[in-house]
Design a protein that fits this description.
By secondary structure, this protein is mainly beta. The protein has a single domain, classed as Porin, CATH 2.40.160.20. 11% of the residues lie in helices and 61% in strands. Strand 7 and strand 8 form a beta hairpin.
């Protein structure tokens, strides 16, 4: 009986300590940006019923959210674009770099039915090491190419990131 009472007391103390242990929580931040890019288009095949191209994109990010997350950032990405009849789809990777040189690499995909892209964070450096996050984009505008095979465009991105604590 003496041993049973001791075990109950030890278990009660352990459970009490576990209940009050601080739990590390991720730090979630929302963002909203306007991203303007210029894409160099390389044609693999182009015909009325099929187009396959790659695009090398460069641009800049302006934050429109109070957090100013990614404000004045730079972007570089690669994308593969496919059009079969009127159905368009694309996928690729984009590197978003902060003014301090730290960056996040995002994997994205989209199609003409969705009308934009969905991206997920796959890698981060420095303060963004271990980052998780997602975003969705909507096209804002695209310009008429002033130089052959160069496509200027701007899009709005809304998303979130979580940083390990």
């Amino acid at each position: 009986m003496f041993y049973r009472r001791n075990w109950i007391a030890v278990i009660a103390v352990i459970l009490g300590l576990i209940m009050f242990m601080p739990v590390a929580q991720a730090q979630r931040q929302d963002f909203e940006t306007i991203q303007c890019n210029v894409a160099t288009v390389n044609y693999v095949h182009i015909s009325p019923d099929l187009a396959i191209t790659s695009r090398d994109m460069h641009g800049i990010v302006q934050s429109t959210h109070e957090s100013k997350l990614f404000d004045n950032g730079s972007r570089h990405g690669v994308m593969v674009y496919k059009r079969i009849d009127r159905n368009v789809s694309w996928n690729g990777f984009i590197k978003t770099m902060a003014p301090d040189g730290e960056f996040i690499i995002w994997e994205f995909s989209g199609d003409s039915q969705q009308g934009g892209s969905t991206g997920k964070a796959v890698y981060g450096t420095g303060k963004w090491k271990g980052v998780k996050g997602e975003y969705k984009t909507k096209s804002l505008t695209s310009g008429k190419p002033i130089v052959p095979n160069i496509q200027p465009f701007c899009e709005k991105a809304v998303g979130w990131i979580e940083l390990p604590k």
